[in-house]
Amino acid sequence: MNYVVIAIFAYFLVALEVILDKFLLSSKKVSHPSIYTFYVGMMSLFALFLFPFGFHLIGLRRALLSILSGIVFTYGILCMFFAINKSEASRVTPVVGAIVPIVTFVLSVFFLSERLRSVQIIGVIALIVGGLLISFEFPLHINKKKFFHGFWYSIGAGVLLAIAFTWFKHFFEHDNFANVFIWTRIGLFFGAVSLLSYRPWRKKIVNSFGRFKNPSKEHYETGSLFVANKTLGGIGSILTNYAIALGSVTIVNAMVSVEYVFILIFGLSLSFKFPKIFQEKEDFLGIFQKIISIIIISAGIVLLSIKFR
C-alpha cells in the first residue's frame, strides 16, 4: 500500500481521537481534564506488554531522565486537554502543531548545535504566522479577548510536548524502541500519579473511583468509548511511523494538515447536532481563516523538516 494512503488513514484516526477527546471532555462524560489525563497515564502501563521484546535495565541517570520526559509529556497532554475542553479542536490542534516544531527546532539549535538555514527560518516564520492567524478571534474588538479561550494552554501544551518529543528522539537514537517506550511510559504513569498531589485534582480523581463500585450503563459506555478512543490514537501513531519508514518523512510530516482538515470537517458536522460541545464557527470568515492558517502552518512544517546534506 502506498505510504501516502497509510499516512492519510493514520491522520484520519488521530483526528477522530481528537474529536472524541473533545466530546468526552466537553459533554461532561469526563468531568475534568485532570481525570482524563490521569486515566491516560494509567493506560500507559499497557506498555509493559512489550517487556519480552527488548526491555533491559539502564543507568540511573538515563532512567530518571526517561521517566522525567514521560512526566513532562503527561503535563503536555494535560494542557492540551484543558485547551480542547475550553475551545474548538480545529483551533487548538493547529496551534499545538505549530508550536511543537518551533520549540523542537530551537532546542536542537541550542543543544544539538544545529545551524539555522534561510529556508528553515522562513519555515519558523510561517509557523508563527499561521499559528497566530488561527488564534485570533475575528472581528477584533478593543474590549474583547483577541485570542481564543484556551490559547495559552495550547502554547503550554506545544512547549511541553516539544521538550518531551526531543527527549524521546534522543533516547530512540541510543536504544531500541521497546525499551525506550517502556521507560518513558513509566514516566507517564508517575506523571498521572503526580496529579494527585494537587488537592482539587486529587478530589476529582478520587471521586471518579466511586464509579467503579456501582457502574451505571452510562459509565460503561464512557469507559468503552475512552478505551476505544485511545486505541484509535495508538493505531494512528503506529501507522504514522510506518508511513515514515516506507516513504518520505518530510512529506508525511507535512501531511499533518490532513489531520487538521479532518478535525475541521468533523467539528463542523457535529456542531449542528451538538452545538454546545463542538462550538465550531460556521460562518464563511471563520472557516476561511482556519483553512488559510492550516495551509500556512503546513508550508512551515514542510520548510522546517527539509533535510540538507
Question: What's the topology here?
Answer:
Blueprint: H1 3-26, H2 33-43, H3 60-86, H4 89-111, H5 118-135, H6 151-172, H7 177-194, H8 199-209, H9 217-246, H10 249-254, H11 256-273, H12 284-305
Q: What this model shows, in words?
A:
There is one protein chain. The chain has one domain. Helix content is 74%, strand content 0%. The chain contains twelve helices and no strands. α3 (60-86) crosses α7 (177-194). The longest helix has 30 residues, at 217-246. It is globular, with a radius of gyration of 19 Å. The model has no long low-confidence stretch (mean pLDDT 83).
Question: Gist?
Answer:
This protein is mainly alpha-helical and 309 residues long. 74% of the residues lie in helices and 0% in strands.
